[in-house]
Amino acid sequence: MATAAERSPADTDVPVIDLSQAPGEGEAWNRPKWMIYLWSATELVLVTNPWQISSRLRTKALRAFGAKIGDGVIIRPRTRIKFPWNLEIGDRSWIGEGVWIHNQDQVTIGHDAVVSQDTFVTTGSHDLRKNMALITRPVVVEAGSWLTTRCVVLGGSLIGRSAVITPGTTVGPNARIPENTIYGQGAPQYLGHRFTSNDRGNHE
């Protein structure tokens, strides 16, 4: 009996998309090939490298390739950035060890925000029904927000000001997380306000 991989198209009505014809991958680069390759080498040596412990050097490398990074930003080892020219990080924000920002579209992280260890932020997906064409949508993480460890944030999502996403939670695609809320695992759900009216006077 033929396996699923061996069956001919006549054996089933379920279609399979020819991935060699999927459009869009190179269109998201927005830079010449030589720059893509140079960034890949720089990222490996200065950004992702666990032996390179200097956040300042990591920040300089990202800025040299077009990232907009504010003052006092901490970026830990093993960070991966797909395209630094599509990245903006506000003052005093923290990017934890092992964070992967797969930003084929713009990723904007506000000031005093935290993206914790092994969190994955991606702006890209595919047309799953037509031709697997690349689809990109920007991601915004507003000021004061905290993406805790091993979160997944999908394209088109907006994390509101001072919101908290709890460990292991998937957000999106195109989700809108209200400001000052805590969202939990699985399908994000409202868990409560982060600050009360009495707290507001102690923050900007």
Describe what is shown at a glance.
The chain is of the alpha/beta class.
Structure description:
This protein has 204 residues and is of the alpha/beta class. It has one domain (28-190): Hexapeptide repeat proteins (UDP N-Acetylglucosamine Acyltransferase, domain 1, 3 Solenoid), CATH 2.160.10.10. The chain is built from two helices and 20 strands. It has helices at residues 33-47, 55-64, and strands at 68-69, 74-75, 80-81, 87-89, 94-95, 100-102, 107-109, 114-115, 120-122, 124-126, 134-136, 139-141, 146-147, 152-153, 158-159, 164-165, 170-171, 176-177, 181-183, 190-193. Helix 1 packs antiparallel against helix 2 (55-64). The model has no long low-confidence stretch (mean pLDDT 89).
Structural shape: globular
Write down how many β-strands occur, each being a DSSP E stretch of 2 or more residues.
20
Sheet of most strands: 7 strands, mixed
Q: State the CATH class.
A: Mainly Beta
**Number of folding domains?**
1
Please state the second-level CATH architecture: 3 Solenoid
**In CATH, what is the homologous superfamily?**
Hexapeptide repeat proteins
N-to-C order of helices and strands: HHEEEEEEEEEEEEEEEEEEEE
Radius of gyration in whole Å, from Cα?
A: 20 Å
Q: Which strand order does the major sheet show?
A: 2-5-8-13-16-19-20
What is the residue-averaged pLDDT? 89
